[in-house]
Amino acid sequence: MPVMPALHSAAWVVPVSAAPIANGAVVTAAGKIVDVGTLEVLSGRYPHAPHRHHTGAALTPALINAHTHLELSHLSSLSRRPHQGTFTGWVSQLIALRLELGATGVAAEQAAIQSSRQQYENGVSVLADIGNTDLALGLVDIYPGRLLSFHEYLGLTPQSLTKNRDRLALEPATRLCSGHAPYSTHPALLSALKKRAKRLGQVFPIHVAEPMAELDMLRHGRGEMVDFILVRTGEEIVFQAAIGPEEGSIHYLYRLGLLDERTLCIHGIHVSDAEMTIMADTGAKVCICPHSNHFLGVGSAPVQRYLQHGILPALGTDSPASNPELSLWQEMHLLASAPDAPDAATIFAMATLGGALALGLDDQLGSLEPGKEADILVVPLDTTADSSVSTAADLMKVLTSRPRQALNQDSSSQHTVSRIAL
In 10 A of CB 341, how many CB atoms? Predict the structure, then answer.
């Protein structure tokens, strides 16, 4: 029996793949989007469809968090005070606290559940999670949206390479796997991980070009990161230059054959125009994490240059260990507040379609288009008056510069983000 279409309207509809629609509407049926347009046109096309008007709100695609670490949620005390010191100094603090509190257990699991629940309540329907344990894997079935749980591999020594290869061979084909970073994962292991991901048609995330210390290591075989690894492993590892003195981490990944349209470069701060050309040519994606980068003092991703190269970045929150507020609304707000900020519509596209493209979900999510899933947010415009936002430009500024009290911290607030009922 055919499902009766439902008509949802609001002061604004934000398709993302097209310009915002004033007095817009979306028609849904059986969990899919059937039509998008003005209320006047769609009410004529679907005269018998039940109609609900969402007063003082905009209808938008659900948000996509393309990078987080739920298993580190119980380490949030690290981000409650300003970070002072080096990147490896912060890593040392994280490792020490994780040893003290445990990597798994009831507290870690409950903190992860709470983090994921808060993100869903704030409009995030897809979480791309990276973890060294199976903690997040156990949350996949209870997360209301999609939780993509990647098992992260790292280790630079020959001994760790053998162990990791053996472990990787035992992973079920359904298990998503990732490499940690160029500075922490043996190149042969990165190649094996990418070959597996390619064979299985899976996305391959990797932290890249986050701290400058990574470049010192790859260019010169020395520096803060090398010193940290030697102390950490206690092994007599010989480091040599892996790239030219003017090259970067993307060159390194490219030479290893790791870059294609299913590769997700996480952070991507210290990336040259030549490297962005490589990324554009190979189809590689990038996910930036503004709040985490600011907290750790590692720099800011060059968003405008990515856009100039035809690359729409995704957005991620990273973990509570380096981000005091896990909210994609806050990530958008930070981007919008930057002196060289892209326009607000682009920022919102990064939090929606950019994430869908990065995770290979753009045929299902990321924009309001016929045939895609009807995962639609009802975002209040901070007033009950539909006329408060008079232009599309005003609308996008409101969506990307939402005040902190609008971030769903109080479930009784009129600012609460919700989803349309299907």
Answer: 15
C-alpha torsion sign, points 132, 136, 138, 141: negative
- Separation CA 298–CA 270 (nearest Å): 9
Angle at 231 between CA 230 and CA 234, to 5 degrees: 75
Single out the residue of 340, 281, 350 nearest to residue 316, CA to CA: 350
Q: How far is it, in rounded angstroms, from Cα 227 to Cα 217?
A: 10
For residue 41, the tally of other CB atoms under 10 A from its CB is 14
The SS3 assignment for 412 reads coil
State pLDDT tens for residues 30-54.
999 999 999 999 999 999 999 999 9
Residues 75-102 pLDDT 10s: 999 999 999 999 999 999 999 999 999 9
Bridge partners (DSSP) of residue 57 are: 380
Q: What pairs with residue 204 in β-bridges?
A: 263
- Does residue 29 contact residue 3 with C-beta atoms inside 8 Å? yes
Output phi, psi for 125, to 5 deg: -100, -20
Which residues have CB under 8 Å from 408's CB, separation 6+?
118, 121, 122, 123, 415, 416, 417
The interaxial angle of helices 87-101 and 224-233, nearest 10 deg, is 30
Residues 6+ apart with CB under 8 A from 235: 157
Strand, coil or helix: 81: coil
Query: Side chain identity at 248, as an amino acid letter?
Result: G
Q: Which residues contact 157 (CB under 8 A, 6 or more apart)?
A: 186, 233, 235, 237
Half-sphere exposure of 22 (CA within 13 A, CB side): 10
Residue 178 DSSP SS3:
strand
Structural domains of the chain, ranges and CATH numbers in brackets: 6-62+366-419 (2.30.40.10), 63-358 (3.20.20.140)
Our CA angle for 349, 355, 359, nearest 5°, is: 150
Token pair in block for residue 182: 């160029």
DSSP 283: T
Separation of alpha carbons 327 and 321, rounded Å: 14
DSSP-based helix, strand, coil % in the chain, nearest 5: 40, 20, 40
- Give the global pTM: 0.95
